[in-house]
């Protein structure tokens, strides 16, 4: 328990704790092995392509991008199949079984990659911001203190808006969007680099477009810090209540949870 009490926090940890603290406990304290989900591999493989494509200065060809997605997705799926060979036990959304979802997301991911590197990129020239020491703002790691809590994360892309401000961008393959995530990135970038952040947005792979910008100029550090501080205090108190609800259907440690049987079936 000591490491979970003292380790830095992240947006995903905080959101997980807020949604169901028991899930946080099962995953991060009890170390229950989560059930795999093709949606997670789809997201990781798409990110790998977007990062490599932007890092190449958009010189990577569609063929190379497709190959990278294919290699990365297959490797991730195969690794998970070693842990859980029964695809009926994989998580999937809707009525689609795990095996079918693996196939479906492979085809979907390939289409999304092609669209991103060809159609979308052609119509949307984008300058990636670089840190003062020359690191490109792609999968950029940060660690800052917010409300007395060390918070860390990786920002998919920092776009140079050309007016002295920087725009955090998150690449999304799923449909769950988190303003808290963008707000945390904005606050962290301001704090770490002293640059202005007025807007943030999502690239929505599902729709093949950018979201409307989320305004960041009114976002104060203390508003974001409050949520990290509350989560951190809860973990330190050992406070892990279960919150069974609709989201149990997408919970990757539900197989180890007794609360789901009472409410969510
Ligand atoms: S199954 Fe539901 S109640 Fe149990 S840990 Fe997961 S989200 Fe929480």
Q: Secondary-structure map with pairings?
A:
Blueprint: H1 2-6, H2 11-19, H3 21-28, H4 38-55, H5 62-83, H6 98-123, E1 138-146, E2 149-160, E3 166-172, H7 179-193, E4 199-204, E5 209-210, E6 214-215, H8 221-237, H9 259-263
Iron/sulfur cluster binds next to helix 3 and helix 9.
What does this structure look like?
Residues 10-257 form the PD-(D/E)XK endonuclease-like domain. Keywords: ATP-binding, DNA damage, DNA repair, Helicase, Hydrolase, Nucleotide-binding. InterPro entries: PDDEXK-like_dom_sf, PDDEXK_AddAB-type. GO terms for molecular function: helicase activity. The structure is a single chain. By secondary structure, this protein is α+β, with helices and mostly antiparallel strands. It folds into two domains: 1-29 and 126-254, no CATH class; 31-125, no CATH class. Helices cover 47% and strands 14% of the residues. It has nine helices and six strands, in the order ααααααβββαβββαα. Strands 1, 2, 3, 4, 5 and 6 form a six-stranded mixed beta sheet that branches. A hairpin with a 5-residue loop joins β2 (149-160) and β3. The two termini are 31 Å apart. Bound molecules: iron/sulfur cluster. Iron/sulfur cluster binds at residues 20, 22-23, 26, 242-244, 247-248, 251, 253-254, 257, 259-260.
